[in-house]
Amino acid sequence: MHVRDIMTTPVIAVTPSASLAEASQLMTRHGFTALPVVDGRGRLLGLLNEEDVLRAGTPGEAGPDDGVILGGHRTAGSVMRTPGMAAAAGLEVSELAGRMAEAGVRSLPVLDDGILVGMVTFQDVLRAHPGTS
User: Fold this and answer.
1) Which of 35, 65, 100, 131 is the most buried (most CB within 10 A)?
2) pLDDT number for residue 56
3) Residue 105 burial by CB count (10 A; 0-12/13-18/19+): exposed, middle or buried?
4) What is the pTM for the complete model shown?
5) b/e per residue, 37-74, with b = 16+ CB within 10 A?
């Protein structure tokens, strides 16, 4: 079984210019812990997770290098993390499980030829693992 067989699609993502309020609303509405940030072509630029949003705080709490832009609004692009890991759509789920566990990540973007095509969570992996469903 491959990652493409268990990933969540379609992907809900934001562009770097999305406000943190917009991104936060999407995350809470859909129960996401992380939200991909993509360019106009669907290429993954980074990930915004719950911790990033909470650490961003309010604009009045920001320091000069904390990604504040004119008007005191922060964007997804200003606080996102550049992804260190992504899963290839054709990767075997058993290999993905080991990589996720070793890295301590709960969700990963799925790429096909550099384009974001899905998201996969540890829950997806557990459902696909024999003996856990």
Assistant:
1) 35
2) 82
3) middle
4) 0.79
5) bbeeeeebbbbbbeebbeebeeeeebeeeebbeeeeeb
